[in-house]
Amino acid sequence: MSLVEKRDEAVRYIQSELSETPKTGLILGSGLGVLADEIEDAKVFAYEDIPGFSGSTVAGHAGRLVAGRLKGEPVIAMQGRFHYYEGHDMKTVTFPVRVMAALGVETLVVTNAAGGINESFNAGDLVIIEDQINMMNDNPLMGKNDEALGPRFPDMSTAYDPKLVALAEAAGHNAGVALQKGVYVGNTGPTYETPAEVRMLATIGGDMVGMSTVPEVIAARHNGLRVLGISCISNMAAGILDQPLSHDEVIETTERVKSDFLNVMKSVVTKLNEEGEN
Amino acid sequence: MKDMKVHVHEAAKSLQQKLNNEPKVGLILGSGLGDLAEEIENPVKTKYEDIPHFPVSTVEGHAGQLVAGSLEGQEVIAMQGRFHYYEGYSMQDVTFPVRVMKELGVEKLIVTNACGGMNPSFQPGDLMIIEDHINMTGDNPLMGPNDEELGPRFPDMSTAYSKELRDICENAAESIGFSMQKGVYVGISGPTFMSAAELKMLRKLGGDTVGMSTVPEVIVARHAGIEVLGISCITDMAVGEEIEGVSHDEVIETATKAKPRFIQLVKQTLSSLA
């Protein structure tokens, strides 16, 4: 089965349950899935029930799609995502983005928990992603291109829409949360970086590092979606502070900044909704 | 993953039937450095091909056997020859012996390699304590589902190379009058040596030495909770601005010259371990 056929099968399954077309897609990272609980008139789809979806395996990831209205905006949210380090190929990792695009999503908001490289960041900071560096040694668009999905050579010069960066800045202001801005480096993991690797990533221009987002944004851009990215700095990357890293720390920090994250995201979605009405 | 655990167990069990010691220290001996295993007392040698599920080494200068016994009062097991990613093995195969060592009871791993010196203050024949590494192999042995019994999903790598073991090694070197280099090892996949432009890049990225091994083994050792000491033997200079080309013969020749000092250093380090 081709990617498009497989996608359409998933779309048919989801669409039959939806009462309206979602305009904004949300990918909720480690510990940030709680936003989906605020979606009204929610239709919930467990990943294992959706044709073509795999199950999510990481602690802190629920593994379901939630569609409904958030602050008036018709949204569809991924509570839990597929990670490359889990052994999924890039096509599987980005499959939900293909499905969201085919469902009618025009704007994708990707979120993640990331390690802070930029020393002016602190654990708990929320960062608007301005750009990304792909250090995953792979690309979801390898192989034959289907022009029905997007171009052979997608432009990545404005992968993260500058208008949405400005929108998020205004949303942060409205929510009373100071937001940072920076460049996200996508690594495969699953090991956290060594201090030498973190210094390297600082040298090449990275502000934060994580194990997701990059493939999804590549597929979204290929598919013509506008992208906004928000990282939650769940810990400072190795060597920045003299302490070991743990997944528990990631979850603890995201728990601590949950209300800030929720407020910013709701403000973002409110603004997207207003933008749509203008 | 389940198969891997079964395979590790079967390999370890088969070795345990032959061994007359319980090794606590593992040694991985790099290109041209395998002779250290000849110093092991009461050695039990097992060819890789005789160990269930072990891959088989193909590169010149690597013997391909495990040697277990005593060295400087430590119960050790040494890999004479290792598996390289560039030979076409999966990362899981490359690191399989480390899993087996863990199963045998190994708590500390001394991993050694021959490598190119990118730091211009280094010289061929220098020995370097690895302080940290950069994984530029493009792969990671822990990709795929994780088995929590083997180690955590997201291993911390902030102290991949034990500070305590580095200090012990440095003191050991001092006590026998050697000066050691210290630095960051960059692991690449190979099998090509780096171009001048690539060497300049790796130097800018913070690397002091570059080689085609070690990084996967250290990742798995850390995942398994094994303390790691890394020692590089700088067999050729790999300074992008003045690179003249290098052959495997040259690597082996320099490693052979550095070997007596290398052997002395590792023995002194072993005798200093608690």
- Write out the CATH superfamily name of chain A: Nucleoside phosphorylase domain
| Contiguous runs where pLDDT drops below 50 for at least 5 residues of chain B | none
Query: Approximately what portion of the residues of chain A adopt beta-strand conformation?
Result: 15-25%
Q: Helical segment tally of chain B?
A: 7
Count of DSSP H/I helices of chain A = 7
Output the radius of gyration of chain A.
Answer: 17 Å
CATH class of chain B: Alpha Beta
List how many beta strands of chain A DSSP finds: 9
User: For the report, how would you describe the main beta sheet of chain B?
Assistant: 5 strands, mixed, barrel
> β content of chain B, as a range?
15-25%
Count of separate structural domains of chain A: 1
Euclidean distance between termini CA atoms of chain A = 41 Å
CATH topology term of chain A: Rossmann fold
> What share of the residues of chain B lie within helices?
25-40%
CATH class call of chain A = Alpha Beta
- Domain count of chain B: the total is 1
Q: Give the termini distance of chain B in whole angstroms.
A: 34 Å
Enzyme class (chain A): transferase
InterPro entries (chain A): Nucleoside_phosphorylase_d, Nucleoside_phosphorylase_sf, Pur_Nuc_Pase_Ino/Guo-sp, Purine_phosphorylase, Purine_phosphorylase-2_CS
Protein name (chain A): Purine nucleoside phosphorylase
Subunit structure (chain A): Homotrimer.
Structural description of this entry:
The complex is a heterodimer of chains A (278) and B (274). Chain A has 278 residues and is α/β, with parallel strands linked by helices. Chain A is built from seven helices and nine strands, in the order αββββαββαβαβαβαα. Chain A is 32% helix and 24% strand. Chain A has helices at 3-15, 90-103, 162-175, 195-203, 214-222, 247-256, 258-277, and strands at residues 24-28, 40-46, 64-70, 73-79, 107-116, 126-134, 179-186, 208-210, 226-236. Chain B has 274 residues and is of the alpha/beta class. Chain B is globular and about 50 Å long. The mean pLDDT of chain B is 93. Chain B has one domain: Rossmann fold, CATH 3.40.50. In chain B, strand 3 and strand 4 form a beta hairpin. Chain B has a five-stranded mixed barrel with strand order 5-8-7-6-9, surrounded by four helices. The A-B interface holds A 57-59, 84-87, 137, 188-197, 199-200, 203-204, 238-239, 243-247 and B 131-135, 138-140, 142-146, 152-160, 184, 204-207, 219, 222-223. Chain A: GO terms for molecular function: purine-nucleoside phosphorylase activity.
